[in-house]
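Below is how a single chain appears once it has passed through the pipeline. First comes the sequence as given, then the structure the pipeline wrote out for it. We keep one example in the README because the format questions we get most often are answered faster by looking than by reading.
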Amino acid sequence: MASPNGFLPFEKDIFEMEELLSKLEGQAGATEEIRRIKKEITRLIQKVYSNLSAWDTVLVARHPNRPQTLDYINLIFDEFVELHGDRAFGDDRAIRSGFARIGEHRVMLLGHQKGHTLKERNECLYGCAHPEGYRKALNKMKMAAKFGIPVICLIDTPGAYPGIGAEERGQAQLIANNLFEMSRLATPIICVVIGEGGSGGALGIGIGDRVSMLEHSYYSVISPEGCAGILWKVATDDTKRQAADALRLTARDLFKLRVIDDIIAEPLGGAHRDARQMGNSLKAYLVRYLRDLKDVSTEELMEQRYQKFRRMGVFEQGPQES
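Resulting structure:
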């Protein structure tokens, strides 16, 4: 959890140096000292962020200032036209959708939105989508396929909304249906985990021809707190750290396991320190993926997608019974 000042527990030394720097910048004749402290801050950030634990990565992914879908829409997409509603129940504000342009490409953009202020977070339910959100997403993806437009999904959710109403309206079935339909959608799909990638809430818009993660995001079947609660019956700092390590939820872990295709580097100290630079890096990857997939035939595209997910995981086959 970030402090009221916006720094994370492992950033205490960095924060103290930055406070000292801000005081010195108002003094005359401190040029050399300012230069030295700036170098020291850069060295500290490099040291800290090159040795993040899995739990530290979770904290960075949840940073309140981390860029979200609407931030990236403003930074790297043009001509965004939001599309609302699922044609059945309502408009879930935890998932945003609409037509957009990135570079020379027209796309259908989908993404989780958590909100930055308390009012926005309550409206978006902290990025936890209801069944109508996943129904809305699938409707828009099918529309994109109808017109031959690629789909981009930006994933940032702790999980699907766990309330009784969501369960009554078929939350699990809607997510499962999205997995099935996305696996055979006849248009390119690009998925990027930009913050939290939690459980079925992330998978509901997470099946794609290219699946990538930002460097300090995480992608997991369950949150570390949920895992700790199940295994140890209590979510303490120690059990949460153990759970995060065991879940292999970081971008480095998942790249080694071939769950994701690329790790998108973040600015020094995380995306929340320089949203514009992060947006430029993300845009470069998205444009590259769109160019790579542009001329692939529909049949080949879906076969490659099928093989991509078939290759994930490791299994053993025992001797057959006679």
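The first helix runs from residue 12 to 24.

See the next section for the split statistics.
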